[in-house]
Amino acid sequence: MDDNKYFKDERDKIIKGLEETYRKLIEFKKQKKTPIVVSKNGEIVEINPNEIQPTTSYWRKII
To answer: If DSSP states are collapsed to H, E and C, what string results for 5-56?
Structure first.
């Protein structure tokens, strides 16, 4: 297998796993009715999970 193809396949698997983890986090936070705590511009911010999209999609430019 070509190294570039191998790395692209691995990257795609990692991104797919991260997207699934994000989806599960949002579902969990909605179920528990707890805010999502993030750092935004150096400040700690609480976000209502009902205000966040349950899915996200990583788009990459094909060269």
So the answer is: HHHHHHHHHHHHHHHHHHHHHHHHHHHHCCCEEEEECCEEEEECHHHCCCCC
